[in-house]
Design brief:
The protein is built from 14 helices and no strands. With about 350 residues, it is mainly α. The protein has two domains: about 170 residues, no CATH class; about 170 residues, Serine Threonine Protein Phosphatase 5, Tetratricopeptide repeat.
């Protein structure tokens, strides 16, 4: 029995390492990912080792009261295939798609699942027989645990509960993996449809329809952009907000337009903070301030419009002075700066009061 558990622990460690073979040969990847992955590996190994540790405690301490916990752990291990199959069926029912069920069902009857089922039920049965024999030969009044033993058993119960919950969760998630993939694929397809529809309607000047399509894409993009590493979703969200702001200007919905453009600027401001060397993000931020200025000018808030234009020009000057631009990008930045400056100066010459420009 002890040998089987040593094999189980070695299997967990080996499968975790083999899933990342490049770490063995790439020192850079080792440095970047070892810290992030060592904790899950350690936790997985400890979870796999806990039944063995409990078995060792039973053998060393010879506390019969621990036998019931050992039975629970063995029975949990035996449920591997059942958990995989049940979770796969639940995922199919939730998604109304039975195609992804085949792989988890096959995993439920593979040698590892069948071996776990045989080992778990066999060990649980043998342990149960030992416990029943103990109860038959020891009077009930002598089976009561002393206080010190009761206190010592509390953390053992806690760790056993953690093992049972983690073991069940891991295998349920494994059974639902294909369902998660199918749901993610559907979400991506929905997002592509909303964005393509919005772009098409926008190009055809069907502003109201384009706005509706973009609004349907917003919840998906906001959820994805909330992930710190999903920079592409943040970029896409800022573009959609900018488009929605431009559409609202066409529809004379200036308050909504200002709100959408400010959201786009807020996202681009965060993107600049994450990567201040990205020239395109800085240009996007400058254009965002310019768009806010256009809306403010349309709302006759000329003082605020000039401030927004000034922010845009300041950003473009920083980009222009960075000496990291290709000739084409440098020309584009200069053209933007000249156009924004001309608009700003024309507005200023139209009679904006000095107090309107105060901070």
């Amino acid at each position: 029995m002890l040998l089987l558990w040593f094999i189980q622990i070695a299997y967990v460690a080996a499968t975790t390492i083999s899933a990342q073979p490049q770490l063995l040969n790439d020192p850079q990847l080792q440095r970047e990912r070892l810290g992030a992955e060592s904790l899950p590996v350690a936790i997985g190994t400890v979870i796999a080792a806990w039944p063995l540790l409990l078995l060792l405690l039973v053998c060393l301490l010879r506390w019969p009261q621990l036998l019931l916990l050992q039975i629970a752990l063995f029975a949990t291990i035996a449920l591997r295939g059942i958990l995989l199959a049940a979770s796969a069926i639940i995922g199919a029912l939730l998604s109304s798609n039975w195609l992804p069920v085949a792989q988890p069902l096959l995993a439920a009857i593979d040698p590892q699942s069948l071996g776990a089922m045989f080992f778990g039920f066999y060990s649980a049965n043998r342990t149960w027989r030992i416990y029943r024999y103990y109860k038959s030969v020891v009077p009930s009044q002598d089976r009561k645990m002393p206080l010190n033993r009761q206190l010592a058993v509390i953390p053992v119960i806690g760790l056993s509960s953690v093992f049972i919950a983690a073991y069940c969760w891991i295998h349920v998630e494994a059974g639902l993996e294909d369902w998660h993939k199918a749901r993610a694929a559907k979400t991506q397809a929905d997002l592509d449809y909303y964005l393509n529809t919005g772009d098409t309607q926008y190009a055809e000047a069907k502003m109201s329809d384009a706005l509706v399509a973009y609004q349907k894409a917003i919840p998906i993009l906001e959820k994805w952009a909330a992930e710190p590493t999903n920079h592409q979703a943040s970029l896409c969200l800022s573009i959609v907000y900018s488009n929605m702001g431009d559409i609202c200007v066409q529809l004379n919905q200036f308050d909504n337009a200002l709100n959408f453009h400010k959201k786009a600027v807020g996202i681009n401001q965060k993107r600049v903070g994450l990567n201040s060397s990205d020239v395109q993000t800085q240009i996007d931020l400058a254009v965002g301030h310019y768009r806010i200025g256009v809306v403010e000018q349309a709302m006759n808030d000329h003082g605020s419009a000039i401030k927004s234009y000034d922010k845009s020009l300041s950003l473009l000057k920083i980009v222009e002075a960075s000496n990291r631009l290709s000739p084409d990008v440098a020309k584009s930045v200069k053209d933007l700066k000249d156009a924004f400056s001309e608009l700003r100066n024309a507005l200023h010459q139209s009679g904006v009061k000095a107090e309107d420009l105060s901070p």
